[in-house]
Design brief:
By secondary structure, this protein is α/β, with parallel strands linked by helices. The protein folds into two domains: 176 residues, Alpha/Beta hydrolase fold, catalytic domain (Rossmann fold, 3-Layer(aba) Sandwich), CATH 3.40.50; 63 residues, no CATH class. It contains ten helices and nine strands. A seven-stranded mixed beta sheet has the order 1-3-2-4-5-8-9, sandwiched between helices. Helix 2 packs across helix 3 and helix 5 crosses helix 6. The mean pLDDT is 97. InterPro entries: AB_hydrolase_1, AB_hydrolase_fold. Keywords: Hydrolase. Pfam families: Abhydrolase_1. One of its GO terms (molecular function) is hydrolase activity. This is Alpha/beta hydrolase.
Length: 252
Amino acid sequence: MLYSKIEGEGKPFLIIHGFLGMSDNWKTLGQQFAGEGFQVHMLDMRNHGRSFQSEEFSYELMVQDLFDYCQAHSLESINILGHSMGGKIAMLFATRYPEMVEKLIVADIGPKYYAPHHQTILAGLNAVNFSVKPSRADVEATLSQYITDFGTRQFLLKNLYWKEPGQLAFRFNLDVFNKKIEEIGVPLPSELVFEKPTLFIRGGNSNYILDADVENIAVHFPLMKLETIPNSGHWLHAENPVLFYQMVVAFL
């Protein structure tokens, strides 16, 4: 069963993190959404965070994990928000189980195919040698040789934990990601449609959702609405959490 953090009472609202992320990335926003009268479920997907690790990794499997989670928690009607990889999961879940989803929110990802583009990040992560028992500062120093953006490094470093005294490790399953990285960019199957209110939020400085993509998005999500957060990149919810929060709450 997927690990989750649950905040508040009310209408179930599921939040799904992006690739290499975890539920903890959404802690502050999750608590704020809970204050609006939602029961917020912040999930760790398979091979991420504190959830189980598996050699199998695909969107279809993660949607099944999500369905099993809803069944176990008796969640029959939900709102769902997903960022990046989490947005792909949320889109596929909503089109597979439309009777369970009231409203869908997708943060900075579209249903199209995305070519592999995490090579530099994976190279940095693979360069970390945990056998020499590095400190957190040592791990950051290694990552900084590959990843120049401070925010991205801090995002990745949140995955560090003490596996045992003196021994750090990453929570995510790096071995499987190395083998299955193609799965992250897989498109939503062309025939799938979700005919309920859907909000797409993109970062003004991000190239994940282009103006040219809107027509294809509307084919899958005819009741879609697109909002843009100016001066924000792919981590739009972290770069401008106030505006992101306002957009989500207004839509819900």
